[in-house]
Amino acid sequence: MASELARLNADAEAGVVEAQLQLADLYENGLGVQEDYGKAAYWYQKAAAQHSIKAYARLGQMYLRGIGVARDEYQASKLFHLAAEQDDMSAQANLAWCYQHGLGVAQDFDRAFKWNTLAAKQGHAGARYNLAYMYANGVGTEQNALEARYWYELAADQGHMKAQLNLGLMYARGEGIEKDEEKAVHWYREAARQGYAKAQYNLALMYSAGAGVEQDDTKAFKWNQQAAEQDYARAQFNLGLLYLNGLGVDQSDRKAAEYFQHAARQNYPKAYYQLGKMHASGRGMPVNEIAAANNFLEAATAGYAKAQYALGHLYVKGKGVQQDEHEACEWFLRSAKRGFHKAQHMVGVRYAKGQGFQRNLVCAYAWLKLASEQCSERQIKQALTRVGEKLSSGQIAEAEVLASVFSQGYVNKTRELVS
User: Fold this and answer.
1) What percent of the chain has pLDDT over 70?
2) To pair with 389 at 20 to 30 A between CA atoms, which of 41, 74, 96, 406?
3) According to the 3-state scheme, what is the secondary structure of the chain?
């Protein structure tokens, strides 16, 4: 190796481009020599000075990432352009990335689409993924789900994890294509086996729900655990739920709290909510009303409707916080606006009674109607009927319009698949 390295050095010093490229590659990857990005960049620069397309492309990546040279996005984009014009697919893909994100050039989605297309047609997996993403989201081109699926499939077949995940999402949601949960599971599994945490989490959800695969809590636990070990907050939270309920694993309040805490450290609102419930009830830990209130507040401030509702109750009762009817109603209303039927029921009843709100039967009917549309509990139906009996047909019509306005902006989800 020493004699071969000496020969390469001599040839590189003599200006042989291939030798300069080989030497740069050895230093960049630490092959037979100590890894040295500075020396790699030096020899790529020498080769680039002789108009080497490969050198343009590799040196561009080093400038873009600030490896071996000072980070310089403009210089990177300039080098990518030189190589891309000579049909180097890696440079075309990187130039597209620069245009898409405004790195060293003005952001230009049309040009990003152009260069992604050229690289994708040459078989670059990353460009195929990015092109699919642009078609899926109408970025730089018209939205086209069939084109998105086509390019995701090509990239997925090349083992691109994000393409596999997004293809799975398209099948799971039926976005622009026929819904097929079995195909969704297939692609989640392909990405999950490569260690992609988001895919592992989505696959766990499918096993939990029995969607596209036979329901299996043990496998749901397995895939959630693998994602959780990568510090993926959603998976840590779901792992906590599985421990809490003894699904796919022996029940353990202690382990549940441990995983909720891991997720909460990453500011995952649902984890704060579960910790609040555990502190409030004394499950797996001593009762601590102040800790319960603090955890509910963290989740509520982040917009989690169930936590907002729970916090409202603490203000009503003065548990862990100073009793405050006005503050309670504020949190109930926030929760109701996010679509939580229990909060909508509470707000409706309070408007009807003038409790914490100025009495308003039209508003009361509107909120109770929304609650009744989501939940068939008899007490909600009875409350709606009682208020309706006190209103004229015109007032009921007004309340129904108001309910439609209130309902805009919240969406109920059955599974939280992630992309």
Assistant:
1) 97
2) 406
3) CHHHHHHHHHHHHCCCHHHHHHHHHHHHHCCCCCCCHHHHHHHHHHHHCCCCHHHHHHHHHHHHHCCCCCCCHHHHHHHHHHHHCCCCHHHHHHHHHHHHHCCCCCCCHHHHHHHHHHHHHCCCHHHHHHHHHHHHHCCCCCCCHHHHHHHHHHHHHCCCHHHHHHHHHHHHHCCCCCCCHHHHHHHHHHHHCCCCHHHHHHHHHHHHHCCCCCCCHHHHHHHHHHHHCCCCHHHHHHHHHHHHHCCCCCCCHHHHHHHHHHHHCCCCHHHHHHHHHHHHHCCCCCCCHHHHHHHHHHHHHCCCHHHHHHHHHHHHHCCCCCCCHHHHHHHHHHHHHCCCHHHHHHHHHHHHHCCCCCCCHHHHHHHHHHHHHHCCCHHHHHHHHHHHCCCCHHHHHHHHHHHHHHHCCCCCCCCCCCC
